[in-house]
Amino acid sequence: MDRDLGAIRRALRKPLEIEESKAALTAPQKNVMQAVVRNKGISLKDLGREVSLAHSTVSGIVDRLAKRGMLERRLDPNDGRLSRIYPTREVEKFVRNVLPGLTRGPLEDALRRATKAERTSIGEALRRLRELLAQSKFRTPSKSDRG
């Protein structure tokens, strides 16, 4: 089962990995771009928290992406000591319009080729697996669990 789940994960990620390699993007760079698109005008400090990376790491990623014309640093209009990070129009279009298709495409294509009965069976099995995982002693603690 573990081998099958791994193969499924790889198949679902393949189109995205191809695009990332064409653009010569690392996973952290992609995560930063997605966070900036979701939070236009985000500060470096907040961006670091959003992607769980150190301030210096995020700053370097933003610098490299800005050099490539993918992100822009602009001074905060209310506090000139701070900069805000914005996506370029091209990056915003890619993250909003192309990226979702790359991540959903393989799954949608496979399910289109399945019969209705197979889709129903797959859906039921996945729902049950999700329920079982939610009951697992290995689940990630929620905020309420941590007190």
Compact overview of the structure:
This protein is 69% helix and 8% strand. It is mostly helical.
Strand-helix topology:
Blueprint: H1 2-22, H2 27-38, E1 42-43, H3 44-51, H4 55-67, E2 71-75, E3 83-87, H5 89-113, H6 116-134, H7 143-146
Antiparallel strand pairs: 1-3, 2-3
Strand order of the largest sheet: 1-3-2
| Content-based structural category | mainly alpha
Strand content: 5-15%
Order of helices and strands: HHEHHEEHHH
CATH class of the domain at 2-98: Mainly Alpha
Main β-sheet: number of strands, strand sense, barrel status?
Answer: 3 strands, antiparallel
CATH architecture assignment of the domain at 2-98: Orthogonal Bundle
Assign the CATH superfamily of the domain at 2-98. Winged helix-like DNA-binding domain superfamily/Winged helix DNA-binding domain
Number of H/I helices? 7
- Rg, rounded, reads 19 Å
Shape: elongated
Spans of at least 5 consecutive residues with low confidence: none
C-alpha end-to-end distance: 35 Å
- CATH names the topology of the domain at 2-98 as Arc Repressor Mutant, subunit A
Q: In which range does the helix fraction lie?
A: 55-70%
- The strand count comes to 3
Mean pLDDT: 88
